[in-house]
Design goal:
The complex is a heterodimer of chains A (114) and B (112).
Chain A (H helix, E strand, L loop, with lengths): L3 E4 L2 E4 L5 E7 L5 E7 L5 E7 L6 E2 L10 E2 L5 E6 L8 E8 L6 E3 L3 E5 L1
Parallel strand pairs in A: 2-11
Antiparallel strand pairs in A: 1-3, 3-8, 4-5, 4-9, 5-6, 7-8, 9-10, 9-11
Chain B lengths: L4 E3 L2 E5 L4 E6 L7 E6 L6 E6 L5 E4 L2 E5 L5 E6 L8 E8 L7 E3 L3 E6 L1
Parallel strand pairs in B: 2-11
Antiparallel strand pairs in B: 1-3, 3-8, 4-5, 4-9, 6-7, 7-8, 9-10, 9-11
The chains are: A mainly beta (114), B mainly beta (112).
Chain lengths: 114, 112
C-alpha cells in the first residue's frame, strides 16, 4: 500500500486569496491525481499530475484556477487560486504505483472560503 | 461521458442487519471498485473486481461484477456500528485505465 499525507488538513480562507495544498507519498508512484469533493457530493477528478510536465485537466477545470506541480515521483501540489465560496470543498490527492494497481487516497484537505 | 448511478443514496439500518447497494452504468466498465469513506478521511478501497461475473469477498463484504459489465453490487452482512460511512462505487473511465469515475455514494447509518 501507499501512505499519503496532505497539508494542510483544513483551512479557512478569505475570498480572492489562494491556497496551496501539498500531497506527499511515502514511496515513488507513477501516477498522482487530484479530486474535489463538494459538500455532500461524490468525488470529481480535477486533473492528473504529470511528473516533469504540465498536468492534464478534466473538462471544467483549468490551469489558471488550479495550477498543479509535480516535481518528483512522491510529491505534488494543487493551488486553488482566487478563491470564492464556491471553492469550499474537500480536495483529495490520490496515487497509483502502476497502471493495474490500486489507487490510494490521502485524507483530504477541507477548505472553507468565506 | 461515463456515469455511475448508485442506489440507494442512504440507508438507516439496525445493527445486525444485512445491507445491499448497487451501481449501474449505461457504459461498460472493465473494472469495478468499491471504496468506503469514513468521516474526515479519504476513501479506502474495499474490493476490486476485474472480471465479468466475478464474486469477491472481504470479510463480511461481498461484491459482484455484473455479467453485462454495466453493474455491480456490494453486500454487507451482519452490520456493525463501524460500518457507518459513505460507500462509493468507482470505475476507470475509457481506455485511460486509471482516472476514476465515482458513483454518487450510499450513506450508511447503523443503529446500535
Amino acid at each position: 500500500s501507499a501512505v499519503i499525507s496532505q497539508k494542510p488538513s483544513r483551512d479557512i480562507c478569505q475570498r480572492g486569496t489562494s491556497l496551496t495544498i501539498q500531497c506527499q507519498v511515502d514511496s515513488q508512484v507513477t501516477m498522482m491525481f487530484w479530486y474535489r469533493q463538494q459538500p455532500g457530493q461524490s468525488l470529481t477528478l480535477i486533473a492528473t499530475a504529470n511528473q516533469g510536465s504540465e498536468a492534464t485537466y478534466e473538462s471544467g477545470f483549468v490551469i489558471d484556477k488550479f495550477p498543479i506541480s509535480r516535481p518528483n515521483l512522491t510529491f505534488s501540489t494543487l493551488t486553488v487560486s482566487n478563491m470564492s465560496p464556491e471553492d469550499s470543498s474537500i480536495y483529495l490527492c490520490s496515487a497509483q504505483r502502476g497502471r493495474q494497481e490500486t489507487q490510494y487516497f490521502g485524507p483530504g484537505t477541507r477548505l472553507l472560503v468565506l | 461521458g461515463q456515469q455511475l448511478n448508485q442506489s440507494p443514496q442512504s440507508m438507516f439500518i439496525q445493527e445486525g442487519e444485512d445491507v445491499s447497494m448497487n451501481c449501474t452504468s449505461s457504459s461498460i466498465f472493465n473494472t469495478w471498485l468499491w471504496y468506503k469513506q469514513d468521516p474526515g478521511e479519504g476513501p479506502v478501497l474495499l474490493i476490486a473486481l476485474y472480471k465479468a461475473g466475478e464474486l469477491t469477498s472481504n470479510g463480511r463484504l461481498t461484491a459482484q461484477f455484473g455479467i453485462t459489465r454495466k453493474d455491480s453490487f456490494l453486500n454487507i452482512s451482519a452490520s456493525i456500528p463501524s460500518d457507518v460511512g459513505i460507500y462509493f462505487c468507482a470505475g476507470p473511465r475509457g481506455n485511460a485505465g486509471n482516472m476514476l469515475t465515482f458513483g454518487g455514494g450510499t450513506r450508511l447509518m447503523v443503529k446500535p
